[in-house]
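Give me the fold.
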Amino acid sequence: MDGSRTLAEPPPDASPARWQRLLAQAVRDPAELLRLLNLPADLLPPAAATAGFPLLVPRGFLARIERGNSNDPLLKQVLPAAAEALTVPGFAADPLAEHDACGRAGSSAVPGLLHKYRNRVLLVTTAACAVHCRYCFRRHFDYRTLPMGSAWWKPALAAIAADPAIDEVILSGGDPLTLPDAHLAALAADIRALPQIRRLRLHTRLPVVLPERIDNALLAWLAQPGPTPVVVIHANHPHEIATDVAAACQRLRGAGVLVLNQSVLLAGVNDRATTLAELSLKLFDAGVLPYYLHVLDRVAGAAHFLVDDDRAVALHRELAALLPGYLLPRLVREVAGEPSKRTLG
């Protein structure tokens, strides 16, 4: 792309879509969450556990959590816990050393652009998510240092155009699907104008936590001719694959989108082979292929979710005995500075 090219500008936002209204109604108060789920008040997290990373969970996802069950695997993913305030050796605010690599404003790197691997780049498109997963490896990421919106696209896309080895662009965040379709359509149009790009990938949790997001407006721009669209969703437990989630994934498939899933291995949530096998089978029924099973990124505040490597490898072996090979996700670790994910086992 010529660096002087004028980028497509999104039109003014229209009235909020249904998914935007639902997201605005998400539960943000831990006391309200406990009341809705008939859980005891002593589960109310201390202020230190939510500082800088407050509770956020859509009501539709909340409806999948068993009332009165403080050990529900979906609840554990979203309810802040006192353990988050503990300082644990080996757990850091930026475990993948992304912040400097992502290019702070004024640095020599392009702000918002992560180029970890030779042929693909990741764009941090937004700080917003539809749910605050308590194990998130970017929970401490300082998005304030990054410009957002169309003013940022130009240098990022110019940098991509200048490197013919790059053939895949990944939209991440935050969660890119929290952005309005007008903005995403404009960004996608400019990415499609880069002749070397063969795949456009989105990493998103919204089809799982807010399946209403997969509406006609999204499918219209996602299915435009150009690079092959790939959507990587994020589900960790079979209870997350509700009927409306499966329908949303099938809509993506019907629009010609390859849909993959990546999970994180979490103590007390999905650290049983039978649970992971059920997840893979439910994903496949929904038209989704299991892709990665990540061991936990050691981010500060998430140490209580850790499954150690020996146990992770043993679980993966058990899982391999329960599933056909095409439904077995790869067990991997992300390591800062390495040219690819590291396979375990």
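Residues 79 and 286 are 27 Å apart (CA to CA).
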